[in-house]
Design goal:
Number of strands: 4
Number of helices: 1
Helix content: 10-25%
Shape: globular
Length: about 60
């Protein structure tokens, strides 16, 4: 059982491929893919905000 309260992205459909996020007691955020819940990415909230801001500013930049 996970110690975090995971939330599914509102952009994820009802299928199995979902991004989940959880706020940890240490102030960091945890991200995981629903198909591999044992692997998590830990980020600072400011870093995630910066990444999301960059994606919104130029969505095609990441499609390489």
């Amino acid at each position: 059982m996970s110690a975090f309260e995971w939330q599914k992205s509102s952009y994820s459909a009802e299928g199995a491929n979902c991004v989940n996020i959880a706020a940890a007691p240490d102030g960091l955020l945890r991200l995981r893919e629903s198909t591999d819940p044992g692997t998590t990415l830990t980020v600072r909230p400011a870093a995630l905000r910066g990444l999301l801001r960059a994606i919104k500013a130029d969505p095609g930049r990441l499609s390489g």
